[in-house]
Amino acid sequence: MYSLIFEQNLQFNPVPVVRPGPYPPPPYGPVGVGYYPGPVVPPGYPDPVPVYPYVYVVGGFYLPGGVGFAFPCVFALLPDRKKLIYQQLFQELNAIALSMGRTWKPEQIMSDFETSLIPAVSAEFPESAHKGCYFHFNQCMYRRIQLLGLATAYSQDESVRSCCRKLMALPLLPIQEAKTSFYNLRATADPAVKKQLRDLFLYFDDYWINNISIEMWNVHDYQHRTNNICEGIYIPSFTTLGENIYIYDFTTG
Fold first, then answer.
1. Entry pTM
2. pLDDT digits over 213-224, tens only?
3. CATH top-level class for 2-133+226-252?
4. Helix runs in 103-157, H state only
């Protein structure tokens, strides 16, 4: 079994530039330690931002004989995170695979719930099972809780917290029970809690029930429920480089 796990991460700083003028020699000048010569830009002009500001990691997960091996496959520099860009990336990687006499048809794909990525994966890998990361599902839920001003109630009110956690646990139920369990939870909630969580219930119904397919976010009986293993691939390297890096450091380091 071969799975692909997608994760987007860094955004680069503006490119360090060399501005004309009397500068002391390196390492005290504009090409100091840890920097690389950039384009010559006149004084007063802003530092240019790279054309490809996003890093996208495609990791592989291989299970020969039940023993899992994770490895990075591709580090792609992308100009944005639109559906067309993702499709072009997948098409380019597929062309490379074909040139090597290979067929790129992953059995399973796991990612976050980025709205532009989901249709791109569906278009380019129609036969692959696309699952959403359970960690990112809960992250989306808690961000919505914060956005709706429910963070204090979540932390201080046990009834509110219990109801929210039951929502977060729905992906762990058998898929045929997930939708019914949501409506049962909403119907049987304490009236005061139901009123307080009204907007959260509406959000879940609109987005997770009627917009994102239940098949994508349901991870019941699924061996790998998160793409945390992908983060284990690239976080050590990116931590060494730093959160805000220059493209020259990335491509040469």
1. 0.77
2. 999 999 998 877
3. alpha beta
4. 117-124, 134-147, 151-156
